[in-house]
Amino acid sequence: MMTQALRDLKENWRADLLSGFLVFLIALPLCLGIAMASGFPPQAGILTAIVGGLVVSRINGSFMTISGPAAGLIVVILDSVRELGGDDALAGYRYTLAAIVFASLAQIALGYFKAGKLSAFFPAAAVQGMLAAIGIIIMAKQIHVVLGVKPDADTLFATIAAIPASIRDMNPEVATIGLVGLGILILWALVSNRYVKMIPAPLVVVIVGMALAQYFDLDDEHRYLFLPDNQFLPHHEFSIGPKFLVSIPNNFMASFAFPDFAKTFTLSFWQQVVAICLVGSLETLLSAAAVDRLDPQRRVSNLNRDLAAVGIGNVICGFIGGLPMIAEIVRSSANCNNGARTGWANFFHGLFLLIFVALFPKVIHEIPLASLASLLVFTGFRLASPSVFRRTLAVGWDQLGVFLITVVGVLATDLLIGVAIGVIAEFGFHFWRSVNWSEVLRLRFEVTTPDPGVYRVKLSGAVFFANYMRLKQDLATLPRRKTVTFDLSEAATVDHTVMEFLHQFCEAYNREGGHAEISGLDWHLSSSEHPLAPRRKAA
């Protein structure tokens, strides 16, 4: 008997093959750029996407997600390479591979023990703050690559402070490649023509960058003069050459590297394991849930299975020299927009990457680093754009407070400590609203059936991110296509994270043919007019 997977392949291979090819065009430059920004060899990103496509797509619990390296993990991996390897980047790379193996085993365990629900424990504003901070860090580090300058800076704030000097000392030809790439990405974001949008912007950036690299003769080491005798440019002699191009082995088999477990018994090693596992797992769960909302068929992923599958893929990546992967939101969105129908699109995207890197490594070598850096700067900007701050403020000033505290916490310390500070800040705002300590970890709610086919969910006390996980579990067991009413009249407070969850639940339930609504908020005060703003019952 033909399995469901083979039936999906037979029925949808044309749509999935086309979408997989288009996603491959987007993924290739991003995988290279993310790997290099993470302190890994460029081929490591491609190895990860290949494993994500060929292996994880066949065992995961989602339908439209694309598994691969993501910008959100750049900061974690780069910190690991530097912390574990010190001045020896190669040693740091191999130690980090070992950390990825252990972090991946933890991901498998989390998926097996159905810990996907734990993502709910992190408040939405803190998660958004973490992502915005990651975006700021990516921009701060990659803008120097765009300009063709290596700053003399050891810390993040020193790297940010060095930006004016890098602008002054930029390598004009390299900067031309990088800035043209940024211009193309900005232009593509503003264009609304659907035919233009069908062409992946990263592909255009890479092709134009390769053409400029040929024009500037980056293949040959040489020096050139730029605007000599100009008093405003004290440095007018610049060097250029292959060091500004991607460097990967000509033999695909030489791309593999193996982990070094020598630091397994050190505290710093396990700190990196926890960071990689936590951030990777959280991003995977959030991205997979977000992609479900983009799926035209409105299918729901099995998040626990998805987490375990990503863990299995990451174990393989750790043993062969790849980055850790997550369910990546940008490529997954493109997958949905390109008309993919099943997980075979993810498989085909990995297959195309394998064929390309095995047969055409010399083409990859012609890609300028500045072009890849421009892709990352643009990605970082989208994570931390002013619109993100405005959307958070629209929900309420307290959510903006948690958001900004998390951003500053991450920038001043590291990801784990920064997110912990954000979570503590969210608790602080709840206690400021007079939440009782007894209600912190226990949500009081009851589900009744006043009429056949009607379910009334009454919540009371404090309803917020730290105590609604059991509610999520119970709601998942409700039958479909019935009537569900959430009664919040006795809720003392309802935070933004739970308001967002309830609204998403109602939207999904209504799409499936049922009827779900929220009631009982007439006497509650909100921190803004936004429908997802936190609420507090009037005295």
* Beta-strand residue fraction: 5-15%
Binned, the helix content reads 55-70%
* Overall number of strands: 10
Q: Ends: how far apart?
A: 64 Å
What is the approximate shape?
A: globular
User: Mean pLDDT, nearest integer?
Assistant: 89
**Tally of separate domains:** 3
Helix run count: 21
User: What about the largest sheet?
Assistant: 6 strands, mixed
Uncertain segments of ≥5 residues (pLDDT<50)?
Answer: none
What's the Cα radius of gyration? Answer: 24 Å
- Class of secondary structure makeup: alpha+beta
Describe it:
- By secondary structure, the chain is α+β, with helices and mostly antiparallel strands.
- The protein folds into three domains: 4-377, no CATH class; 385-432, no CATH class; 437-537, Transcription Regulator spoIIAA (2-Layer Sandwich).
- It is built from 21 helices and ten strands.
- The chain has helices spanning 4-37, 42-54, 74-85, 89-112, 124-147, 156-161, 163-168, 172-190, 194-197, 201-215, 267-294, 303-320, 329-337, 344-359, 361-365, 369-383, 386-395, 397-412, 415-432, 469-476, 496-511; strands at 66-68, 222-225, 237-240, 326-328, 444-451, 454-463, 483-494, 515-519, 524-526, 535-537.
- Strands 5, 6, 7, 8, 9 and 10 form a six-stranded mixed beta sheet that branches.
- Helix 21 links the parallel strand 7 (483-494) and strand 8.
- Helix 1 (4-37) packs antiparallel against helix 2, helix 3 packs across helix 4 (89-112) and helix 8 (172-190) packs antiparallel against helix 10.
- The chain is globular and about 80 Å long.
- It starts with a helix and ends with a strand.
- The relative contact order is 0.17.
- The model has no long low-confidence stretch (mean pLDDT 89).
